[in-house]
Amino acid sequence: MAEGRVLLERDEETGIARLTLDNPARRNSYDQAMRNQLGAHLDELADDDAIKVVHLRGSEGVFSAGADMAGAYSWYGAGAKPDRRRPSQRRRLAVDRKTFTLYHNFLGYPKATVAEVRGYALGGGFELALMSDISVVAGDTSVGMPATRFLGPALGSLHMFFYRLGPVVARRLLLTGDIVPARDLAHLAVFTEVIDDADVAARADWWAHKVAKMPADGIAIAKEAFRLVEQLQGYQGEEVASYLFHAFGTNLRFEDDEFNFVKTRAQHGTKRAFELRDAHFHVADPKSPSTSTNGSD
Length: 297
Known about the structure:
The chain contains eleven helices and nine strands. By secondary structure, the protein is of the alpha/beta class. It has one domain (6-259): 2-enoyl-CoA Hydratase, Chain A, domain 1. Helix 1 (32-46) links the parallel strand 2 and strand 3 (53-58).
């Protein structure tokens, strides 16, 4: 059940609403029901004239590890009867369209958005951090798209990655599944601030109050203007292209020497599958022999 795992607080006096992803046992990763609850809260706040700013955060010092991969293929289940086959493309398209609609709507959200990012921002969590108007990020936050290691590099909002990160960094993260500390991306100015972890919560709250001083109509008009500029510059077709590439690009055939997460998880369990994944993808860097590739999505 998703009930209670996305917490909503409204403060009409300040015009700030806070949405807290509250699934700390899973690093605030989200399943389909939790994603739907997040979308429902965002839709509600979009129509709330008392709210100017949505402050998005995760509980217990972690933003979000993205989609919960413990049930990766359950997202595509067509019914109660278990089906061991890979999901059909028609099923993938139906599910991915809904998922990418959430991201697309958040990217063009009519309220100002402030992300308080700490601990982990992986997969969909990384996308939400990049899509927010103001992102305050702890320098030691682990960011990236590690699920590309078992779902393929055509993963996530591809247009947004290339537009925000640039083609060089986007290709690096998607083709390797590397997880990097946010401070390594600070020079790209993709986040508003990259600061010490201890200061993130207070600083995000300060930004939320600062933006909330703006007139509500001004924020609404500005957000539509920003969306128009991005659409004209590089986002035309983003919603369709991203979910098409995700649906087609992640229905992979694995050769005998390639890592198949779903098969490995069925044989050994989720925890062991992550361990075997990291072992498979680890290639020692001669410049940094102790470099770790651990992480989850």
